[in-house]
Amino acid sequence: MKEWVDECVVPYANRKCQELGRLPTQKAILILDCWSVHKGEEFLTWMKASHPLIILVFVPAGSSHQVSMCRVSVSGNTAPTSNGIPVSQVKLDTGLGTLRDASAAWLMEAWVWFCDHPQAVRDAWHDTKFGDWDLSYETLTSARSRTLVHERFTEDIPFSLAISSQIPTDPLFVEVDSPKFDDDSALDPNMLVDIRGQLPMDVEEQEGGYIYTGDVA
């Protein structure tokens, strides 16, 4: 799991941040099943210490058939890789050597197919539903979704605390108004007086603000 996060999840998240013009401090959500290897204390502690910008969200136990996009839709699209044989009739040689040699080829073939059919992945998120909600990008970023999240955070204190508890206690996460933070409210007022006294000749202080009086041409 650690190797997968380091070599797959993190590079993908970083690349998407660059494509979307996000800051390097942009948080990402990683959705996982409730397997013991995912929820074990060792892995959770490692994630919090090594990747504080990744927030883990777990699919509720027993509901993978509803909210796991691979279970709902994607797996069906790999049927063509069985050469037209119905999945129910496929028999596998489970010998170690056979599985070792076959798994990599099958994964590569599936990867190439999905690269050529990106809409299949998007449709899978649309088909992954809880009631009248789906997990598509359009739904999760809609005004309705944003309003609901805002209401939950302001009205449901236990929910808000549960989400907030995932924010890492990292020394880099400091209060904006702390003396160590480089903003005006943390500066010594005497220093601000000195700064105002060193304004350029073409800049004047007027009504609490500053105006450029030089030649704009």
Structure description:
This protein is mostly helical. Among the domains are: 1-58, no CATH class; 174-217, no CATH class. It is built from eleven helices and six strands. The strands form three sheets. A two-stranded parallel sheet has the order 1-2. Strand 3 and strand 4 (133-134) form a beta hairpin. The radius of gyration is 26 Å and the shape is elongated. Mean pLDDT is 73; it is low at 171-179 and 181-187.
Keywords for this entry:
mainly alpha; single chain; elongated
Helix/strand-derived class?
A: mainly alpha
- Show unreliable segments: 171-179, 181-187
Percent range of helical residues: 40-55%
Distance between the termini: 61 Å
> Which word captures the global form?
elongated
The whole-number mean of residue pLDDT values reads 73
Main β-sheet: number of strands, strand sense, barrel status?
2 strands, parallel
The order of strands across the largest sheet is 1-2
Gyration radius (Cα, Å) is 26 Å
Counting H and I runs of at least 4 residues, what is the number of helices? Answer: 11
* H-E string: HEHHEHHHHEEHHHHEE
Q: How many strand units?
A: 6
Strand content: 5-15%
